[in-house]
UniProtKB/TrEMBL annotation:
Keyword Signal part of the UniProt annotation: yes
Region (Disordered): 31-78
Keyword Nucleotide-binding: no
Keywords, in A-Z order: Amino-acid transport, Signal, Transport
Identification of the protein by name: Leucine-binding protein domain-containing protein
InterPro entries in alphabetical order: BCAA_transport, Leu-bd, Peripla_BP_I
Assigned protein family: Belongs to the leucine-binding protein family.
Basic and acidic residues bias (residue ranges): 43-61
Signal peptide from the UniProt entry: 1-25
């Protein structure tokens, strides 16, 4: 089994160039720009603030990488495989990072920057000395993502880390130019997985499965859904229906309400009546996939309309937020999340390097990059290695890629208690022999 110690944080610190890039991007109002290629073989050199040049490099050279820039500082397309001057004559591995650095939404841009930072941390922790990252801007557009992937392929990229959005992943899947080229995407849209595409994201289906399995193990076989009638909400409700049936349980009622509605009182009343009737037959658990302020608005409604305290409220990993744990209606509730010890160490290290908290997907980007960097040390990334049944340990716990391209994970269960959230069921440390 190929694996790495998730708490191993030895190695060179990511370059100060990218740290400065992230800090400036966080303050900017305009679109961000992707940085120059990043190599594990030699740290980049900070540019002279007077000239914009790195050390004695020739004019137009970006940070001493040997790649030319246009007048705006953007990397110019390369005529052939990109090879830094200091790696000339060596057999190097190149990976493209396809993320929306110039997306119109500032939150998406910040997420892309945080993910790139996580990938660069993995580069210095886990890659060989002959590994090069080629960051490319997808802008969140299918056409731009395809163009960026084509440019990266011309520059010698052997696999892709990204894109972030399912539509962009689908655009690459449908392009014959990339047939058989490994894509490690970060969308949670399971329909774009398969073939040579794997999704490194944590999907709501995996989270729902962990919750249902825990509930059934604790004697609960009746479930209800109380959440928004959005595409994601409908998907989560379907996952609850499927997992309950698989575990020998049943969904006794569903309370859909319009997405974004602050106080869905009529839906809460209907659901409360159904739950109280079902309690005569046994315990009930209610899945509420909301977060933050909306969760604090919605969760108390069930108790207000007469749902007993014996009913167990459940949430997904978006409940892993100290800001909601003081809500009285959530006392004793369960939520699912990755094991926290290594994530907390990662966050501390990220803050020390970049001066801010990691983005929500930075640790998943780190795990995906660390895995493929280790597997590619022999010069190739093979399907048989990617789908090892034993799986791999990452910052987010144990995971493995299924043959259909989706990811299976071992998640922990937490309970909201007066002093905060307490882990009541650790994440598993092994998978069953079968996979699929």
């Amino acid at each position: 089994m190929t694996s790495w110690a998730p708490s191993r944080f030895a190695g060179l610190a990511p370059s100060l160039v990218l740290a400065a890039f992230l800090a400036l991007a966080g303050c900017a109002t305009g679109p961000s720009q992707p940085p120059a290629p990043i190599s594990s073989g030699k740290p980049r050199v900070d540019p002279d603030p007077r000239t914009g040049q790195a050390g004695d490099d020739r004019p137009g050279d970006i940070h001493g990488t040997g790649i030319e820039a246009d007048v705006n500082g953007m990397p110019l397309p390369q005529p052939g495989k990109f090879t830094p001057e200091y790696l000339e004559g060596r057999d190097i591995m190149r990976a493209a990072v396809l993320l929306p650095f110039s997306h119109p939404n500032a939150n998406v841009r910040a997420e892309a920057e945080g993910m790139l930072a996580g990938i660069e941390m993995a580069l210095f922790d886990h890659a060989s000395e002959d590994f090069v990252l080629l960051p490319k801007d997808t802008a969140g557009s299918q056409s731009v993502a395809t163009e960026a992937a084509e440019q990266a392929q011309r520059e010698g990229a052997e696999f892709f880390l990204g894109p972030l959005f399912g539509a962009n992943i689908a655009a690459l899947n449908g392009n014959r130019l990339f047939a058989g080229m490994p894509i490690i995407g970060f969308s949670n849209d399971r329909t774009v997985a398969g073939g040579s595409t794997w999704l490194a994201s944590i999907t709501p289906e995996e989270e729902v499965k962990a919750l249902v399995d825990h509930a059934v193990a604790n004697g609960i076989r009746q479930f209800a859904y109380f959440g928004p009638q959005s595409d994601l909400g409908t998907r989560i409700q379907a996952a609850l229906q499927f997992q309950a049936q698989q575990a020998g349980g049943i969904v006794i009622s569903t309370g859909f309400y319009p997405a974004g509605e602050g106080s869905p009182t009529s839906e809460a009343q209907y659901l409360a009546r159904s739950i109280n009737q079902a309690e005569a037959r046994g315990r009930v658990a209610v899945l509420i996939p909301e977060r933050g302020t909306q969760l604090r608005r919605v969760a108390p409604l069930l108790a207000y309309y007469g749902v007993n305290r014996s009913v167990k409220l459940m949430g997904l990993s978006n409940w892993n937020d100290p800001g909601i744990w003081r809500e009285p209606s959530l006392a004793g509730s369960w939520f699912v999340a990755p094991p926290q010890a290594d994530l907390q160490a990662f966050e501390s290290r990220y803050r020390r390097i970049y001066g801010q908290a990691p983005s929500s997907l930075a640790s998943q980007a780190y795990d995906a990059a660390a895995l493929v960097m280790q597997l590619a040390k022999d010069g190739e990334l093979e399907r048989e290695e990617m789908t090892q049944q034993d799986g791999f340990y990452g910052l987010n716990g144990l995971f493995r890629f299924a043959p259909d391209g989706t990811t299976q994970r071992k998640m922990a269960i937490f309970e909201v208690q007066p002093g905060g959230a307490v882990e009541i069921q650790p994440a598993g440390n092994s998978f069953a022999p079968d996979i699929g």
